[in-house]
Request: fold
Amino acid sequence: MPSNRPLRVLHLTTSREVFFDQQIETLEAKGVDTTVVVVPGEDQIDGDMGSGRGAWEYLEYFPRVRRALRDGDFDVIHANYGLTAPYAITQLSLPVVLTLWGSDVIGFDGYVSKACAWRCDAITVRSEEMRELLGRDAHILPSGIDLERFEPMDHAEARERVGWEPNKKHVLFPYSPDYERKNYPLAERVVEDARARLEDDIELQTISGVDHEEVPVYMNAADALLLTSKHEGSPNTVKEAMACDLPVVSTTVGDVRTRLADVSPSGVGKTQDELVDHLVSVLETETRSNGREEVREVSWDRIGDRILGIYADVC
Reply:
C-alpha cells in the first residue's frame, strides 16, 4: 500500500445501493480516496442489481471505466457485483478485488462472475453458501450495519409514527410485494396460518419507496420481521432488524442461520410449516430480541477494517 498518500481505489458498481454507499462512506472515513463509476441506466424497483439495463448500457460502461482509469492514479480496482468484473479485469496493471452481492453467483450473472474470478486477486462473498456456489476460495464478508441509525426505540411511539393500529400484531415484510425473489405469496400464507392458529388480529405490513432513514421506525413498530426470500447473500434487512432488537423469522438463505444462531426470540425454517411455527412462537412471546448484541460484529467500522486488510494483501 502507498505510504506517502491515501490509498486510491476505483469502485465499479451496477447501482448506488444504500449498503454500497455506506461502504464508500466507511472507507472514506478511514482515509481511502474513492472514485465510483456506475453502470448507466435505471434500476428496476427493488430489483436485482444488474436489472433494468440492456446491452447498450453495458457497452457504454466500458469507455467510462477506461476514462476513469486514464484520468486517475489508482492502487486497486474494486468491482462490486459480478457484472462489473469484466470491466475490472480488462486492464492488467492493477490488482482487482471482486465483491459478490448474492444473485451474481447464480444464473447468467453467476456465469459472468465465475468466468472472471480467476483473474481477480481477492474475492469477497456474503456467506458460505455463496462461496460454495462460486466454487473457489473467497473471503466471507457481509455488508455492514449502521448501528447509530438502526437502534431500538419506544415501540408504542414508533407504531404511532407509522400509523399502525396499536392493538394488533404487525409482521413486517420489508420489501415491495412485487419483488418476485422475495416471495411475498409465501409471506402471505405464513401470516394467514399464524393468524388461524393464534386467533389473533395479525397484519402483514410491507414497505416500498420508504426513505432508508425511516426504515428503523417501521422495524421498531413491528412485532416480527418475516423474510421469505428464495435466495440471498447476507440480507441487510435481517441485520438491521437485529440492530433494532426486532425478532426475525426467515427462510434458510445466505448467512441468516449463522446471524440468528444466538438470537432469541427468532427462527429459521425450511418449510412453510416451520416458518409458521417460528412466527407463532415469536408473536406469543411478545418480547424483543437480543439481536443488537449479536450483530455488533458486522458494524460498518469492523467491516471497513476487514476491507482495508484485503486491500493491503493485494497491493
